[in-house]
Structure formats: C-alpha cells, structure tokens
Amino acid sequence: MIEAQVRDNSYQAFSAFLFYKQSNELGYKMVPMDPTPGAVRKFLAQIPKRLIWNSELEYYIVMSNGKQRVESETKKLRLEGYQADLAHIPELLITELAVDTKNIGRADGYEFIEIFNTTDRTIDFKDYHIRYRYPKEGPDSDLIWRPDERILIPSGETFVVWLKPAGHTELTSEDFNRYYQTQLKEGKNLAVIDETEGMANTRPRAVVISTNTGKDISVAHYRKHALRRLSSVLYKYPLNGTAELLNISIGEKNPSPGTVLQAQVPEQKRKIKLDKEKPVIEDLTDRKPVRPAESIELRADIRDRSLVKTAAFYYRTDENKPFKRILAEKDRNDNLYHYIVYSPELIGKDQLEYYVAAGDGINEARTPVKMIDIKQTSKSHGLRMNIENRDTLSGTQFLKATTEGRADRIKLWIDGKKQVTEPAMEKEVYFAFDTRKTNLYFKNAVTMEGKVLKVFDDTTNKYRTYSVPLPETLLRKGKQLQRITIRSGSKVSPFDTAENRDDFLVKNARLVLSDGTVIRDQRVSPEKELFIGDNQRSNKSWQFQFNLSDGLFTSQLLEWDTSKLSEGAHHIQASDGKENVSLVVRVDNSGPHIEPNITEGQTYKGNLILQADMYDKWSKIEEAKASLDGESITLPYHTSFSDLLPGKHSLKVTATDLAGNKTVIERIFKTEREHPDQPEVIDSEADTHKVKLSVRVKDPTNDAMDVGFYRGFQYTARNHVKIFKHASLTEPPKSFVPERETLFTNKELERVSAADGKTVSTENKELFPYHRFEVTVDPSIDENDLAEAVWKGSSLPGRKVTMYAWNYRTNEWQPVDSFVAKDDKPFTLKASVIAADFVRESKMNVIVQDEIPPAKDMYTFVWMSDTQYYAESYPHIFDKQTEWIKDNQKQLNIKYVFHTGDIVDDSADIRQWKNADRSMSVLDKSGIPYGVLAGNHDVGHKDGSYRVFGKYFGSDRFDKKLHYGGSYKNNRGHYDLISSNGNDYIMLYMGWGNTDEDIAWMNQVLKKHPDRMAILAFHEYLLVSGNRSPIGEKIFKEIVKPNPNVVMVLSGHYHSAMRKTDELDDDGDGKPDRLVHQMLADYQGGPEGGQGYLRLLQFDQANDMVHVSTYSPYVKDKNYYDTDTYGNKDEFSLSLDLKPRIKKVETDYFECNVYTNEELGKREQVKSGDTAEFRWDHLEPQSVYYWYIIVEDSFNGKTKSPIWKFKTKKETYRPAPDQFDFRHVSNP
C-alpha cells in the first residue's frame, strides 16, 4: 500500500497513477490510485499481494488534472517478508512457459517448457518428469510427460522441452530454432516430446517438475485470462521454501527458450551435500502362490535420509525376456510403494520374477530377485472333456471335448444318441483393457452382440486393468472378426441415449488366451489413449475387432439343457476316431427336500426347538439358512413362544445343493397371547397385625397359574423422596450432586405428588435444566431387588427428555430411558434397575433432564486439518493456530474446534507427536472443546496401527472433558455433544480405515441423539473434483442418507478446498427435506505446509446461515485461494436451520417402586378367573405395607402386577385379665 499527498493547495488532481517495477529487466507496471477516504488531497494505491515477488520495489507517481501532468521522483521500497530461503530453493526451476504460439495446422506448434538447474552439480533428469496438472482435479489426474532421451542439465544452465503437436512428425529441431532464432541442440539443451495435445490456452493449468516418486519440486501455475498470444510466462524461484513458483511476467516478453533473466534465478548456487548412503528398501510383497485369474500386488517400504526420487518395480513372467520396469509413486495413503500386476499378464505363466530398485539422485539400491509361483491348470493330453466322471450337473451345461488332432473328428453321444456340436476354444478367453478417469455411478460396460459382459462404475483416476471372461457361445469359428464394444454409460444404462454419459480413456485393449497369447486389434496402437464419452473429442463407444484363427478352435462344444432329461444317471461318450472317453454323470435339477417341524397355520405355545430335516436325493447340501420373522437364526433354534408377540410368524428355511439348486420353504404359524392378564386386586380390610391379600387372576388361554405374593415398597413426593432442581453445564451432569441445587418447596412437592396435571417446570438460559429425585429406600432391600422409577411430565415437540440413574459402581449418571416428544402432551419415562449398582446406604438417585434454551449471539466453530507438516517442520505455525484460537475465543464466541486428521506426518516420529501435543494442549488449558481423528499419516504406515495415536490422542485425553460424549476403540471414533445458543449438535468422528463395524457404531450413536444436528468428521470423504471418494460414497449411502439429523460432513486428506450440497428427501414424498453440506479443506500443499490457514464456520441464527471463511493467523491473511482466480472457493455461506429450540423439564409426578425378592407366600395351579388368597401375619399396627404378585403359567407366560398398598389398623387398648370386673359379665 502506497499513499501520496498533493502539497500544492492550488493543484487539483483529477487522477493519480502509481508506476512500479521489481526488476530492471522488466518494465514498469501501472496501478490506479484512489482518493484516501476521509483525507484531503491524498491518494492511495494497493498492489495485490499475489503480484509481489521481490524484496525491493522501485516506483514513482504521476498525477494529472487534465491539463497538467506531475511526476514524482523515483523511490525504492524495501519489503519485509520477501527475502529468499536460499537453503530450500528447488534444485530445478521452471523459468519459462510458451503456451500460446504460432499454429501448425490447428495446434500450437512451438510450445515449450524451460528448466533451470539451481545447484552446483549437473542433474540427471532421469529421476524426474514433467506433469501437466488440472488444478480442479488434483495430482491423480496429471498427464505425465517424459522425454525419451537422457537429459543432463549442467549447473546454472537451462534445458528446453519442446511439446511437439500430435500428427506433425515433419517438424524438427531446426524448425524450432528457426522459429525462435535460437541454436539449441537436441540431446544437449533441447528435448522433444512427440504426439502431445499441448497446453490449454483458455483454462487455468499448472506445469510441474516432480520426482519419479511423485514429490513436486517446482509448480508453475498460469491463468486463462492472463495469457497473451505469442508471448511467454516467466517464473521466479519461490521465496518461502515451497515448490510454488512466483509468476513475474505474463505477456511482457517474447519467448526466449534457453535464456533466463537475473531476476528469475538465485544469485548463489544451491550446494548439494555429499551423500554416500543408499536408500533402504523393505520388500513387503506377499509371495504366496496365486491363480491365473488373480492379480499380484508388489509392495515395498523405501526410505532415504534425503529424498527417494526414483522407485521402480522390475518384473517378468518369462525368464528369456528382459525385466519390465515400472516407476512407482509414493502412495499418500500409507506412504508405501505399490504396483499391481494384473491377471492378464499372469495367464499361461508359471511364475513371476521381480525385484525393487530405488535411487535418491546420487545413490541407488536394489533387492535380490524373488519368485512368486502361479498355479496354472495342468495341461492335459489326448482326448479329454471338461467334466469328470460322476459329476453332478444341472441347468444348461457347456460340454466340451478336446483332442490333439483335428477337432472336426470329435463325435459326442449322450445315452447313445449322437449330438450336434460346434467348434470351440478349450479354455477361457479374456478381454482385457486399461482405463482411467471413470466416475462413480456411470454404468460403463463391455458388451458383445448386445449382451452386457461387465459393468465398471467405480472412480478410477489412474490406469486400472479390467479382465472380462468371454462367453464360450459368442466366440465362433469361421467368424471373420470377434467384435467387442466398450460403452460409455449414463447413470441408468450402458445403452441409454437420453442422459449424460461418462467421459473416460481406454488403452491397451486385447484378448488373452489361456496360454498367455495376446491378440490385438491391428487398427489401434496399444499405447494410444482412446477417448470414450459424450464430449466433443470422444466416441460414445469403441468397438474392437479381433481375428481368431481357425486353429485356435480345438474343441467341440455342446450346449446341453439338462432340464429336458430325467434326473439321475446319464452316459456321455466322446470319440476322435483314435481314442474314446466314457463318463457317467448325474443330472440334478431339483432342490433339496426340507421338512420343518412347524405345521402351516398351527398355533403354538410353550417351549420348542425349531428345526428342519433336509436332504437331497442326488447330491449333498452345500448351504442351509433359516430366518424367524426375517431375522437370521441357526437351526436347531431353542425358543419359547411366549417370547414372541401374539399373532402370525414366519419360519423360512433355504437349502442349496452342490449342483446349485435351491429350495425355499416358508411356514406361517401363530402364537396366542401367552402371558396372563394383569391381575385384579380385591380389597380386604387389614387388621391390626394381619391382612388377607386377595387377587383375581385370568389367563387368555385359560391355563392354570401359580401366584406368588411378594413384598414391595413405593415412594412418592409425599414420602421418602427429596426433589432438587438445578441446571448443569452438561447433559447429564458430570458430578453426583452438582453445587447450588435447590430443594423443592413443600408447595412444589404437593404439585408433583399426584398425576393430576399440576406441574413444576424448570428453565435456564445458558445451562441444562434438570430435576433430581433422591429416594430413601427401606434398609431391608436386597442387592438383587428391582427398583423401578416412574416419571410423568411433558416437554415440547421434537425434544428428547432423558431419565438417568446414578450408578454407584461406575460413578456416573447412566441413561435408563428417553423419549422424543411428538407434541406437548404428557408422557411417561419408566425404567427398572438392580439395587446392587444403583442403591447405596439406602439411597437411590434419578434425574430427568432436557437441554439448553436459546441465546442470540453469533457463534463460531473452527476447523483444522492436515497439520502434518507443521508438526514435522513448522511447529511455530501449529502453535500460532491454537494460540490464535485461544486469543479470539471471546471475540468470535468460539464454541468448538474440529481437527479432521493427519495431525502428524510420520506416526513413528515421536518428536512430531510432541509438537502436536504441545500445540493442541493450548486448547486443553483454555477449556476450548475440540475433537480429533486419525488420518492416514497418524496410523502405522505398514499395519494401520492406532497405538501411537492412542497414546497421545486416545480417550484418556478427553474422557473427563464435559463435551466428550463417548469413545470407540480408544478414540478411533468418538462423539462430542455441543450446544450453543439453543442449537444442539453431535460431532461424530471416525478415523482412517472405515469398516462396516465402524459404520454400524456411528449409526448406533446417531440414532441415540435424533434431536441433535449431526456434523460428521472424516479424514477422507470429498475428492478434489468435488465428488465423493469411494469410501465417501459408502458413508453417504450408509450414514448420511439414513439419518435425518445429519446436516454437514467435513474432511481433509486431498489438497484442495471443495464443497458439495445434496438435497435429501427423508419422508419419501418427492420433496427435499434437508440440505447436507459436505466440505473438503486441506491446505498442506501450499507454502510452509499450508501457512496456517484455518476454516471458520460462523453460525448466524438471525439469517439461518453458516458463513464459512478462511484465515491464517500466521500470515494474517484471508483466503488461501485467490478470489480473482478461484472465486468463492474459500469464502461462502451455507443455508442451515438455526432457529433456537426452547427447552424445559416439566414434572407432573414421580414414584419409585421397589420389587423385592422376598416371597410372602405362593398359591399353585389357580384356575383362570379364580381368586388367590394369602394371609400376611405379624404386621405392625397403623403401618403402610406394599406388595405385588407374579403370575406364571406352565408355558412360560409371566406377568408382574403393579405395587399395591394397605394400612394396618391402630391397636385398641385391652385391659389385663385381673383388671376385668367379672360381675358385669353374663353367660351367653
């Protein structure tokens, strides 16, 4: 920012301009100056930060009033923060790009990339390559350019790579030199890459120099609007130790391949340290034998003290041929090196030999050669068939007979009847092809004669090989060409013509025979990339043609429909005129016989073992399954019909035999209402010391019953119950008796002593309101007795009210019942607990709690991710992030902090964990709630172990924090409960390597908290394309869609910032019910590991919006991505319903019932409808007693009554015998 003032009061300037330059080799640039707000005769100019690339600026100012022009003197300005980090300048720079040049035909003819060696040694380019990057798609979609010839770049010199346009082989280096008037020599300082599509002129792209292992060395970006035809883009070395080059000139200079400006390169050469240590290679390949249809994954861990620049797998399947070299990049998920040898290369081969090699630019290492056996089917000789004697066959079978001689001599008979056969190939034939850039859900397919043979609908960014077996009936002898089609599909069908189709690339399509022979379409080069799709450069499908010679058809084939024959033995004969083969096979087209021990329509009661007799007449039973009312069970299954609800039930049994025939038997049966009815108490007046207890019992099926009389207790607000009201910081409270509770007044106790609609309500503006019930129970209660708490009250629609009981064994409030209110009508919470865990010193405690009510201030969540390079190399930036969060907690009303993984770069480096621990401890000490998860760099890179992560960020670190909801496998997953301003959230995390078990746990947690908005956090979810990754898609289908409370998903892992919003219809009415916002934010690919950029999510309740912004407390800058180039990539707003929900806990009535195991008496075999009686003696006078009964029948029916009470009479005074006056007693 530069300001100028007009000192001559008589001079009225109408306009002002700043002219500046950063190098004498480049001209001045002009920036308009605007009047300084609130000042007189002052003008201000701002130079965008992205345009500054030097530590010194030379400038002057020109002012004009329309008639006169005034020019200031030239001044120099030193800029802080623009000094070069000479120790970390890349060894190779891209110094110039010529993107838009003279056309040859329809393509740019002379595009080039200029490379400069900054070191004090010659660099062999064999350890590097050039990548052409699509910024929106990320590194996985890069095009790789490697010159064919060896390139040696001398110290301090340049090398030029010419991208020769495809189809112009007539152009030579002489043409290039003539165009640019240079004298570059091919092989010395000029290399040519043939058949390229060139660089885009109208879209933003990046050109990258990378090591062969995928490490970016120099990255040169250019923007579509900045290019000028027939000019160049110049770059300077980075100042901050990263790979991002500084753009210093666009369109100012004519291209000058081989020549650099002084401003572009450092004054001093970078010194390369002497390195004598070779890379260390650990071969991790599983060398167990494989079958031909399987693939082999070569796998290695390679490390070096400096940098592994080249890693390569060498392999071959023929010892007489040279090894094939495959360059491997470091996998960013596990930091290992992988390569898959797909099955088409293994078919017909006996073994695979391989070794691993690596280099760091100076030293090279390699492993010994190792072998992996391939289990090939042993080759048969003479006349043979593809079935064995005594095989069991069903359905349509393809019978083949093969001989060493002429196949047309083979004859085939079944049960003595000669069959009509056709020529065929003996073994399976595979169609193989390599493809990339396919997208999820698009039904791309391989088809043949209109039949779909294979659908491939996964996301593939890098080339992957598919192998498709071809049906025997589609390969015909005498057919001139075998035609196989690869189709671009829509999300509906491979043949759909109406919808949008996928766009992808295919190469190396071939047929692979059983002996390993490869047959190709002679019209297409194996390495040529074919574009398939519906864009302008693509074909919607590509048909390949293969010529199979008649000599390959060595068999005779019969398509045999066994269903037309009787079941049982059949005789098959084959002859080639010299040899005969005779077989007996069994035909089995019927499924197994199943006989369950349940009769259709019958009504059952009591105990039963569900089972079924199963057998097959012709073969063995291979698989048997059973289900009861849709739930899987294992036979025999022991059950009691009293455990089933009254009504119809289904037992389904499925059995499959060895021939593949399946039988399904379903039996529908009934169960009656088995449990006795609730008993009817018959009032009887208690005496002073005894009472007759009477109940009438009934059974719905008129079974005789045993009636047990038991002692009970009941406590209400009128007796032995103290009720407290308060509000806590969390739900439930973390302590047994929180401070500052208030005891209910006598008037309040009276209001809740009966279920009559008279209530007591407690509310709070900031905390969690609750009512606590302290019950003093009788000392005689045994630890095995059952205590039942009953609460009646109300809440507001959509609110979840929970009853907790204090568990003395675990020292925590344990949830025992909950209810989500549909309206404001009364409801009941009821739960039973065992006295052993919930009663101590005759005290039992229960609380009923709802959640916090509204406030009005805007609040903020902070989101961190992929801090790995801060922990590794820039711990001061990590510290800066958490210190800034602490310092701005009050100003921004920061309520919570997310961290979506890759806390460290190397999980084995304890120093990095200590750095991360120190930085994150700032949040611990400040009391700021936060959650973390493990990214791929936080777990063991070989075994995926969470051990070290658990040591530093396991559940022990969080379990005493108020917001910590619960842990899964020592914080592999966890959830936090956060409430702010009347909005309630559950933050649900799951670390790297999601499994079905992990997903099941997450769904379980979400279902327990349906009234909280859920924000999910994962390390991997969104891709740089804005689409979901395969695991992200699985999470979306299995977690996001089924849970209506999920509103947001956060992720990192991929170097970009993207977002995706889906509208979801939860009630199936065809209209969207909610928006789910999914975001990716990972800045680690930027300078200094991301320069400390954080995501801020500010929740604006007044407008129902979440305002997302990006800020770095380290460089004090908003938005990592430049808004001129990337728009609102880093700053935008999301719609979210943030209306505060009013909440309260309102009690109408509470009682505690204790069901003891103290049996008073028992009456057996009481008939249904009869009365059972028992006399209870030795009672205290004028006392209240409680009792209940248990009614059981002989078929496991069982019913427990409610608690009843009675009160004994007051004892009447009776004089002693010697005090009676017998004179007044008369005889009866």
UniProtKB/TrEMBL annotation:
Domain LTD: 80-216
Origin superkingdom: Bacteria
Protein's name in the database: LTD domain-containing protein
Gene Ontology terms for molecular function: hydrolase activity
Pfam families in alphabetical order: Metallophos (PF00149)
PROSITE patterns: LTD
